[in-house]
TrEMBL record:
Residue ranges annotated for the Aminotransferase class I/classII large domain, each copy included: 33-388
Pfam families in the cross-refs: Aminotran_1_2 (PF00155)
Subunit structure: Homodimer.
Cofactor: pyridoxal 5'-phosphate
GO-annotated molecular function: pyridoxal phosphate binding; transaminase activity
Protein name: Aminotransferase class I/classII large domain-containing protein
Bias kind Polar residues: ranges: 1-14
Record PANTHER family: AMINOTRANSFERASE (PTHR42790), KYNURENINE_ALPHA-AMINOADIPATE AMINOTRANSFERASE, MITOCHONDRIAL (PTHR42790:SF19)
One GO biological process term: alpha-amino acid metabolic process
Keyword Transport applies: no
Statement: the UniProt record of this protein carries the keyword Transferase: yes
Keywords attached to this entry: Aminotransferase, Pyridoxal phosphate, Transferase
Family listed: Belongs to the class-I pyridoxal-phosphate-dependent aminotransferase family.
Length: 395
């Protein structure tokens, strides 16, 4: 039987997109991975998590292994609430929905808000998995260009005013990663943050604020958009993937109680009570503030190493944005197609992510690439940049 014919019209449309994870490069084993947006292997707290699992099962026995919650798991929204307070965000625990990573939160929001006619505004470039998720629901996008200070809100204002005047559909949702963006590493200035909030009020759209990297600042803690929002327009999405362990899949959305209830309609049991209970136990036993302080220092040092190596080795036609936190450096190589460069780079033992995967229109990313300083150690980062420069000098 040909099952494809039974797919819903939304599924048929979604299947016309590239398959999920198409952007993931095939990296030979001996390659230095400047492509990976993962935490470094040595910062994943394996020993502490092992201990948390043992303690959890000693204390709660079979409970975390059933469908329903456990006392530990139910503590997690409360623990997240305390973390948010440190970001000047005030939510009660029933305004926080724990999800299977930030990805599930983004998907749920898209599912609840979007249909084929909905218009979504996105930064250009942006996190490719979010683009994949949105494209499962709609193909109506407005792309807002970025510079070294994040999304150009004046361009957004211009596009919105023009659409309004021409009677075109207005966006329902704007997706942004205002702090240490993926892939550009940029941080939206406070002035632009205020402008964005004003625009959302004026044109009545919601903002999905993805703050996956927000706590990994080098010097200054950015103020989340959500803290500037007085009309419940911001759906604030967070994650513990970048600061603890992505495999546990712990994220959340903080919004109104009503929206949490609606999102829950579709989330139901599609997450992991066991992983949530482990995370809660781990957070109880291991102060996250101390860990975050160590991570910030370690990632800042690695970022400095990458920036110094870029200064030392890169030819003049290469430029980059200097990040203030997060995992990434965004590089422009004039007159070079970075996806063609990847093959030679991996042959020379270094990987990166070509810029094209972060744009809806691939050609816009032709001369750009994303480097990650999170995964490799300082010496390897330096070596990786040297290897990349060798490939460039042969072109
Ligand atoms: C901006 C952004 N949001 C969300 C995620 C995924 O977060 P999670 O692992 O919590 O689903 C990533 C991971 O790369 C990311 O870069």
């Amino acid at each position: 039987m040909n099952i494809d014919q039974l797919f819903s019209s939304t599924t048929k449309k979604a299947l016309q997109n590239d398959p999920p994870g198409e952007w993931m490069p095939n990296i030979p084993a001996n390659c230095l991975r400047l492509s990976s947006g993962f935490p470094a292997p040595n910062v994943v707290p394996v020993t502490e998590l092992k201990q948390a699992v043992t303690n959890l099962l000693d204390q709660e026995q079979d409970l975390p292994l059933h469908y329903v919650g456990t006392p530990k798991m139910e503590l997690l929204p409360e623990q997240i609430k305390h973390r948010l307070e440190q970001r000047a965000l005030s939510f009660s625990s029933d305004e926080i929905l724990v999800t299977a990573g930030a990805c599930q939160a983004i998907d749920l929001i898209a599912r609840v808000l979007l249909d084929e006619q909905s218009v979504v505004a996105v930064e250009s470039p942006t996190y490719m998995e979010a683009l994949e998720m949105f494209q499962n629901y709609t193909h109506q996008f407005i792309e807002i260009p970025m510079d070294e200070h994040g999304m150009k809100t004046d361009e957004l204002a211009h596009v919105l005013a023009e659409r309004k005047e021409q009677g075109l559909p207005m966006p329902k949702l704007l997706y942004t990663i205002p702090s240490f963006q993926n892939p550009t590493g940029t941080t939206l200035t406070n002035e632009r943050r205020r402008h964005l909030i004003k625009l959302s009020e004026h044109y009545q759209f919601l903002i999905l604020e993805d703050d996956a990297y927000g706590e990994l600042y080098f010097d200054e803690l950015p103020i989340p958009l959500s803290a500037m929002d007085t009309e419940n327009r911001v759906l604030y999405v967070g994650s513990l993937s970048k600061v603890i362990a992505p495999g546990l899949r712990i994220g959340w959305v903080a919004t109104t109680k009503e929206m949490v209830q609606t999102l829950f309609w579709f989330k139901k049991d599609l997450d992991h009570p066991f992983a949530q209970a482990i995370m809660s136990q781990y957070l109880n036993e291991n102060p996250l503030d101390r860990r975050l302080k160590e991570l910030r220092t370690a990632y800042k040092e690695k970022c400095d190493t990458m920036l110094e190596a870029l200064e030392q080795y890169m030819p003049r036609h290469v430029s980059w944005y200097v990040p203030e936190g997060g995992y990434f450096v965004w590089l422009k190589i004039s007159n070079i197609d970075t996806s063609a460069l990847l093959d030679d780079a991996t042959k020379n033992g270094v990987s990166f992510l070509p810029g094209k995967y972060f744009f809806l229109h691939e050609e816009e990313g032709r001369e750009w690439l994303r480097l990650s300083f999170s995964y490799e150690e300082k010496e390897e980062i330096q070596q990786g940049i040297k290897r990349l420069s060798e490939v460039l000098s042969q072109m």
